[in-house]
Amino acid sequence: MFFQMSECAYRIRPYQPGDEAAVYNVCLKTSDAGQDATHLYSDPMALGHIFVGPYINLEPQRAFVLEDSEGVCGYALGALDSAQFYQKYVGDWLPRVRNGYPVPSGDPICWTPTEKIYHQCYHPEVYLPESFRGYPSHLHLDLLPRAQGQGNGCRMMETLLAQLKRDKSIGVHLAMAASNARAERFYKKLGFHELTRVGSGPEQNLYLAKKL
Fold first, then answer.
1. Contact 65, 19 (CB under 8 A)
2. What is the number of domains present in the chain?
3. pLDDT of 66 above 50
4. Can you tell me the distance from the alpha carbon of 55 to that of 77, in angstroms, rounded to the nearest whole number?
5. Which residues lie below 8 Å from residue 55, measured CB to CB, with a gap of 6+?
6. Among 11, 114, 147, 166, which residue's CB has the most CB atoms within a 10 Å radius?
7. pTM for the whole thing?
8. Which residues contact 146 (CB under 8 A, 6 or more apart)?
């Protein structure tokens, strides 16, 4: 049920512990509004500790990877109950990753992207308003460029949503950079609709949701 093969020999399978470095890399290579963010972060692990690590460690049963002949080239990560997930994220996961990560000092305006991520390790930003009650689950989906435009995103989403349905979720939401118009079109074609926008300028986040 979980193993699928596309015409181009892409395979979707459950996450395995040996995939950690690869999914961290996919996160880094897709985090600049869908583009490679390697040049922005002096610590290549920092982003993954916020956007990948908690999912593959706290809810690995809802983590799937996409691979081809070159290796892992995408992932779909889900949390069944966002409120419970964030409690574990703040109380369990972040204390584990803070060791060796200095607390940024000085004017926040002058912080580097890496320092901003370090700040989140000590001052996590959790956005889960009451209006999201009908969409208690949430997810992340990222694909490297070589895996895009071939239907893999749809297959990954179908796999994760099917798992969330089996786990009795009634709805799911996601956050994305509002500047990523391609991703917004993709999600809306899959039936997601806009919930809200938070922030302004290049750092504005768009929240989308879908009933299950």
1. yes
2. 1
3. yes
4. 6
5. 62, 63, 77, 78, 79, 140
6. 147
7. 0.90
8. 68, 70, 73
